[in-house]
Amino acid sequence: MTSRAETALYLVRHGESEANAAKRYAGQSDSPLTARGREQAKVVAAALRATLFDRVVSSDLSRAHDTAEIIAREHGLDVEVFPELREIDVGEAAGRAIEDAKQRFDWGPGRFVQWPGGESLEQVRDRAVSAVDRIVAASPGKTICIVGHGGVTRILISHFMGLLPALYQHHSPTENTNVTVIRTDGLMYRVESLFEAAHLAEEPPPAI
Protein backbone atom coordinates (compact mmCIF):
# COMPACT_ATOMS: atom_id res chain seq x y z
CA MET A 1 0.00 0.00 0.00
CA THR A 2 1.35 3.42 -0.95
CA SER A 3 1.57 5.80 2.00
CA ARG A 4 -0.04 9.19 1.67
CA ALA A 5 2.15 12.29 1.59
CA GLU A 6 1.98 14.20 4.87
CA THR A 7 0.95 17.84 4.79
CA ALA A 8 2.11 20.24 7.50
CA LEU A 9 -0.22 23.03 8.59
CA TYR A 10 1.05 26.01 10.58
CA LEU A 11 -1.97 27.76 12.09
CA VAL A 12 -1.02 31.32 13.03
CA ARG A 13 -3.27 33.68 14.95
CA HIS A 14 -3.31 37.25 13.63
CA GLY A 15 -1.46 40.08 15.39
CA GLU A 16 -3.14 42.25 17.99
CA SER A 17 -6.23 44.00 16.63
CA GLU A 18 -7.93 47.12 17.90
CA ALA A 19 -10.66 44.94 19.41
CA ASN A 20 -8.06 42.74 21.14
CA ALA A 21 -6.41 45.80 22.65
CA ALA A 22 -9.79 47.06 23.90
CA LYS A 23 -10.74 43.56 25.17
CA ARG A 24 -13.86 43.53 23.04
CA TYR A 25 -15.42 40.99 20.71
CA ALA A 26 -14.74 41.65 17.05
CA GLY A 27 -16.30 38.55 15.54
CA GLN A 28 -16.64 39.10 11.82
CA SER A 29 -16.33 42.89 12.02
CA ASP A 30 -13.14 44.07 10.38
CA SER A 31 -11.06 45.22 13.35
CA PRO A 32 -7.63 46.24 11.96
CA LEU A 33 -4.22 45.51 13.41
CA THR A 34 -2.77 47.90 15.94
CA ALA A 35 0.78 49.16 15.56
CA ARG A 36 1.76 46.50 18.10
CA GLY A 37 -0.08 43.88 16.04
CA ARG A 38 1.98 44.77 12.97
CA GLU A 39 5.18 44.44 14.99
CA GLN A 40 4.01 41.05 16.26
CA ALA A 41 3.37 39.98 12.66
CA LYS A 42 6.94 40.96 11.73
CA VAL A 43 8.28 38.99 14.70
CA VAL A 44 6.38 35.79 13.83
CA ALA A 45 7.32 36.20 10.16
CA ALA A 46 10.99 36.29 11.17
CA ALA A 47 10.51 33.26 13.41
CA LEU A 48 8.95 31.32 10.50
CA ARG A 49 11.48 32.49 7.91
CA ALA A 50 13.29 29.15 7.88
CA THR A 51 10.06 27.17 7.41
CA LEU A 52 9.70 26.46 3.70
CA PHE A 53 6.07 27.30 3.06
CA ASP A 54 4.51 26.31 -0.23
CA ARG A 55 1.34 28.30 0.37
CA VAL A 56 0.13 31.07 2.67
CA VAL A 57 -3.64 31.24 3.12
CA SER A 58 -5.74 33.54 5.22
CA SER A 59 -9.15 34.60 6.43
CA ASP A 60 -10.51 37.55 4.46
CA LEU A 61 -10.65 39.82 7.54
CA SER A 62 -7.89 42.43 7.43
CA ARG A 63 -6.31 41.56 10.79
CA ALA A 64 -5.57 38.07 9.49
CA HIS A 65 -4.86 39.04 5.88
CA ASP A 66 -2.41 41.79 6.84
CA THR A 67 -0.58 39.40 9.18
CA ALA A 68 -0.47 36.80 6.39
CA GLU A 69 0.95 39.31 3.90
CA ILE A 70 3.86 40.08 6.23
CA ILE A 71 4.59 36.34 6.58
CA ALA A 72 4.15 35.64 2.85
CA ARG A 73 6.58 38.42 1.92
CA GLU A 74 9.39 36.45 3.59
CA HIS A 75 8.73 33.56 1.20
CA GLY A 76 7.94 35.40 -2.03
CA LEU A 77 4.38 34.08 -1.96
CA ASP A 78 0.96 35.60 -2.51
CA VAL A 79 -1.77 35.27 0.11
CA GLU A 80 -4.72 33.07 -0.83
CA VAL A 81 -7.99 34.17 0.76
CA PHE A 82 -10.57 31.78 2.22
CA PRO A 83 -13.62 33.60 3.66
CA GLU A 84 -14.63 30.35 5.41
CA LEU A 85 -11.68 30.84 7.78
CA ARG A 86 -12.99 34.12 9.19
CA GLU A 87 -13.68 34.45 12.89
CA ILE A 88 -16.88 33.25 14.60
CA ASP A 89 -19.92 35.40 13.94
CA VAL A 90 -20.80 36.57 17.44
CA GLY A 91 -24.00 38.35 16.39
CA GLU A 92 -25.11 41.06 18.77
CA ALA A 93 -21.99 40.60 20.92
CA ALA A 94 -19.75 42.28 18.30
CA GLY A 95 -18.17 45.31 19.91
CA ARG A 96 -19.13 44.31 23.45
CA ALA A 97 -16.66 43.79 26.28
CA ILE A 98 -15.37 40.22 26.55
CA GLU A 99 -16.18 40.28 30.27
CA ASP A 100 -19.87 40.29 29.26
CA ALA A 101 -19.57 36.62 28.29
CA LYS A 102 -18.81 35.66 31.87
CA GLN A 103 -22.17 37.02 33.00
CA ARG A 104 -24.09 34.53 30.87
CA PHE A 105 -25.58 31.46 32.55
CA ASP A 106 -24.10 29.20 29.86
CA TRP A 107 -20.57 30.62 29.90
CA GLY A 108 -17.69 28.34 30.85
CA PRO A 109 -13.98 28.10 29.91
CA GLY A 110 -14.57 24.91 27.90
CA ARG A 111 -17.95 25.84 26.44
CA PHE A 112 -19.01 27.45 23.19
CA VAL A 113 -21.36 30.41 23.59
CA GLN A 114 -23.72 31.11 20.70
CA TRP A 115 -24.78 34.75 20.84
CA PRO A 116 -28.15 35.95 19.49
CA GLY A 117 -27.76 36.43 15.75
CA GLY A 118 -24.44 34.56 15.77
CA GLU A 119 -23.19 31.20 14.54
CA SER A 120 -23.56 27.84 16.22
CA LEU A 121 -20.61 25.63 17.02
CA GLU A 122 -21.63 23.26 14.23
CA GLN A 123 -21.75 26.06 11.66
CA VAL A 124 -18.26 27.26 12.53
CA ARG A 125 -16.83 23.74 12.61
CA ASP A 126 -18.37 22.74 9.29
CA ARG A 127 -17.17 25.75 7.32
CA ALA A 128 -13.68 25.79 8.82
CA VAL A 129 -13.07 22.04 8.52
CA SER A 130 -14.35 22.06 4.95
CA ALA A 131 -11.90 24.83 4.04
CA VAL A 132 -8.96 23.06 5.67
CA ASP A 133 -9.86 19.77 3.98
CA ARG A 134 -9.91 21.51 0.57
CA ILE A 135 -6.59 23.22 1.22
CA VAL A 136 -4.98 19.91 2.22
CA ALA A 137 -6.49 17.97 -0.71
CA ALA A 138 -4.95 20.47 -3.14
CA SER A 139 -1.51 20.34 -1.51
CA PRO A 140 -0.48 16.80 -0.49
CA GLY A 141 2.97 16.74 1.04
CA LYS A 142 3.22 20.52 1.19
CA THR A 143 3.82 22.94 4.05
CA ILE A 144 1.11 25.54 4.45
CA CYS A 145 0.73 28.60 6.65
CA ILE A 146 -2.90 29.32 7.59
CA VAL A 147 -3.42 32.71 9.23
CA GLY A 148 -6.69 33.00 11.08
CA HIS A 149 -8.41 33.64 14.37
CA GLY A 150 -8.29 32.40 17.94
CA GLY A 151 -11.87 31.18 18.14
CA VAL A 152 -11.85 29.23 14.89
CA THR A 153 -8.42 27.72 15.60
CA ARG A 154 -9.61 26.49 18.99
CA ILE A 155 -12.62 24.82 17.37
CA LEU A 156 -10.45 23.20 14.69
CA ILE A 157 -8.05 21.85 17.30
CA SER A 158 -10.90 20.57 19.46
CA HIS A 159 -12.40 18.85 16.42
CA PHE A 160 -9.12 17.19 15.41
CA MET A 161 -8.57 16.04 19.00
CA GLY A 162 -12.09 14.60 19.25
CA LEU A 163 -13.14 16.91 22.08
CA LEU A 164 -16.18 18.66 20.63
CA PRO A 165 -18.62 19.90 21.86
CA ALA A 166 -16.12 20.66 24.66
CA LEU A 167 -13.41 23.12 23.69
CA TYR A 168 -9.72 22.54 24.33
CA GLN A 169 -8.45 24.48 27.35
CA HIS A 170 -4.84 25.57 27.16
CA HIS A 171 -2.71 25.87 30.28
CA SER A 172 -1.88 29.52 29.55
CA PRO A 173 -3.54 32.41 27.68
CA THR A 174 -3.21 32.17 23.90
CA GLU A 175 -1.22 35.10 22.57
CA ASN A 176 -1.62 36.95 19.30
CA THR A 177 0.57 35.37 16.56
CA ASN A 178 0.80 32.06 18.45
CA VAL A 179 1.55 29.08 16.20
CA THR A 180 -0.09 25.64 16.22
CA VAL A 181 1.33 22.85 14.05
CA ILE A 182 -0.86 20.07 12.66
CA ARG A 183 0.18 17.24 10.36
CA THR A 184 -2.17 15.22 8.19
CA ASP A 185 -2.19 12.55 5.54
CA GLY A 186 -5.47 13.96 4.29
CA LEU A 187 -7.50 11.52 6.38
CA MET A 188 -6.26 11.85 9.95
CA TYR A 189 -5.12 15.08 11.58
CA ARG A 190 -2.45 15.03 14.30
CA VAL A 191 -1.85 18.04 16.53
CA GLU A 192 1.93 18.33 16.97
CA SER A 193 2.22 21.55 18.99
CA LEU A 194 -0.23 24.03 20.45
CA PHE A 195 -0.25 27.83 20.70
CA GLU A 196 3.53 28.25 20.69
CA ALA A 197 4.55 31.86 21.28
CA ALA A 198 8.22 31.77 22.29
CA HIS A 199 8.99 34.13 19.41
CA LEU A 200 7.16 36.91 21.25
CA ALA A 201 10.09 37.12 23.66
CA GLU A 202 11.68 39.06 20.80
CA GLU A 203 8.69 41.42 20.50
CA PRO A 204 9.51 45.09 21.13
CA PRO A 205 7.77 46.42 24.26
CA PRO A 206 4.48 48.28 23.68
CA ALA A 207 4.85 52.04 23.20
CA ILE A 208 3.93 54.04 26.29
For the structure shown, list the relevant keywords.
208 residues, alpha/beta, Rossmann fold, 16% strand
Topology, element by element:
Layout lengths: L6 E7 L4 H5 L12 H13 L7 E4 L3 H12 L5 E3 L39 H17 L5 E6 L1 H11 L18 E6 L4 E8 L12
Parallel strand pairs: 1-4, 2-3, 2-4
Antiparallel strand pairs: 1-5, 5-6
Describe the model.
- This protein has one domain (7-202): Phosphoglycerate mutase-like (Rossmann fold, 3-Layer(aba) Sandwich), CATH 3.40.50.
- The protein contains five helices and six strands.
- It has helices spanning 18-22, 35-47, 62-73, 121-137, 150-160; strands at 7-13, 55-58, 79-81, 143-148, 179-184, 189-196.
- Helix 2 packs parallel to helix 3 and helix 4 packs across helix 5 (150-160).
- The longest helix has 17 residues, at 121-137.
Question: What's the short story on this structure?
Answer:
With 208 residues, this protein is of the alpha/beta class.
Identify the CATH class.
Alpha Beta
Query: How many beta-strand segments?
Result: 6
SS field, number of helical segments:
5
Q: Beta-sheet strand percentage?
A: 15-25%
Order of helices and strands: EHHEHEHEHEE
- How far apart lie the N and C ends? 60 Å
**How can the largest sheet be summarized?**
6 strands, mixed
What is the H level of CATH, i.e. the homologous superfamily? Answer: Phosphoglycerate mutase-like
Based on Cα principal axes, name the global outline: globular
Strand order, biggest sheet?
Answer: 3-2-4-1-5-6
Unreliable runs, pLDDT <50, ≥5 residues? none
| pLDDT averaged residue by residue | 93
- Give the structural class: alpha/beta
The helix fraction, in percent, is 25-40%
Rounded to an integer in angstroms, the radius of gyration calculated over CA atoms is 16 Å
